[in-house]
Structure formats: C-alpha cells, structure tokens
Design a protein that fits this description.
The protein has helices at 19-33, 40-63, 70-81, 90-97, 101-113, 135-156, 161-193; strands at residues 87-88, 117-121, 129-133. The protein is mainly α. The protein has two domains: 19-160, Arc Repressor Mutant, subunit A; 161-194. Helix 1 packs antiparallel against helix 2 and helix 3 (70-81) crosses helix 6 (135-156). The longest helix is centred in the last third of the chain and has 33 residues, at 161-193.
Length: 194
C-alpha cells in the first residue's frame, strides 16, 4: 500500500490524474449491474465531485503558509469583496458563502484565533454583530488572493480560451437548472405540508 503524499506542513496532496478513469469505471459498473438505469448522472456528478476535491486540495496547499484553508479563505474573501470597512453580518456571510450558521461559526472562531477578523457590535441593532477584517486579516488576504488565483489559472490554462468560455457557460446553465429544480421541489414540498 502506498502512502498518501504530504506537504511540508503535513497536508494531504491529492494527485489524482486518474479521476476520469475512476468515474468511468463506476459508470461502467452501473451499466453492467443495472442496464435498466441510465448512469450518465454518475459521470457528471462524479467528475464535478472529483474536480471539487482536487481544487480544494491545491488551494489548501497554496494557503498553508497563511494558516488558511479554502473554507477560511472564502470567509476572508467575502469580507474583502464587501469593500471598506470589510465587514458583514453573520447572516450576510452565510448568504454569500451558502453555509449554515454552525459552519460559519467554526470558520469565524478559527479566523478570530488567528487575529484575522474581529466581532464588532452592530451599531443599529444591539442583538447582532458584524464580522470585520482586522489589519492583519486584510494584509493576509491581499497576499493570498493573487496566489490562489494564479494556482487556479495554472489549471485553467490547460484549456483553450474558447473551451474556458464554453465551460463557464455550460456550468452556469447547469447551475440555473439545478436552482430551478430545487425551487420547484421546495414549492412542491411546501404545498404538501400545508
């Protein structure tokens, strides 16, 4: 059994050049075992899942010197994108990041321990707080953003510009279709419970 390669900081390095082959093997197994069911979704969602795993791994690797991972980086980038004074309410953050309150709280706790963010009282509502980048948080995110973008570009440059554009268009179309399907399902479930 081979050992999983690790970075200097001990993070697992994902080198999965066989992602397509693994997904195709699962696809073929379902074709053989259940020929009555079209397994195309296995191929599509399997590839999306593998790409997510691979991209999270290389982003985590480039973020390691900053004591960040993709999840905490996403919080800092949401705050940075908000513009000065780089603050949002927890509710705004959960909406920007599509997270549960519990998932966000864990990330906020980690970032607060690193002194990258601060919890501040909301001036207009004593019941809530604002999450704001500290000077240290602003400095680290300003350093990390170009490094993460360059790592992402390193992978995207493997595709021709026309393929990149087509990929974006197809992913947006698919994301819209999933949103519509989820919205229709929510409406249907709500009607059934009334």
């Amino acid at each position: 059994m081979t050992e999983t390669p690790r970075s200097k900081k001990g993070h697992r390095i994902v080198r999965d050049s066989a992602a397509r082959e693994r997904v195709d093997e699962i696809f073929r197994q379902w074709q053989a075992e259940r020929p009555d069911i079209d397994p195309i979704p296995v191929r599509i969602y399997g590839l999306i899942g593998r790409i997510h795993i691979q991209s999270t791994a290389f982003i985590d690797e480039v973020l390691a010197p900053y004591n960040l991972v993709r999840g905490t980086f996403d919080v800092l980038t949401a705050l940075r994108r908000a513009g000065a004074p780089y603050s949002l309410t927890p509710k705004d953050l959960t909406n920007h990041l599509l997270l549960s309150g519990a998932g966000l709280n864990s990330r906020i706790n980690k970032l607060e321990a690193l002194h990258y963010i601060a919890r501040l009282p909301e001036p207009n509502d004593r019941r809530t707080i604002r999450i704001q980048l500290t000077a240290a948080g602003e400095a680290v995110i300003n350093q990390a953003i170009p490094i993460v973008f360059e790592a992402q570009w390193d992978r995207l440059r493997l595709l021709e510009p026309a393929s990149q554009k087509q990929l974006v268009e197809e992913l947006m179309h698919f994301a819209d279709a999933i949103d519509r399907a989820n919205s229709d399902l929510s409406k249907c479930l709500q009607t059934e419970t009334e």
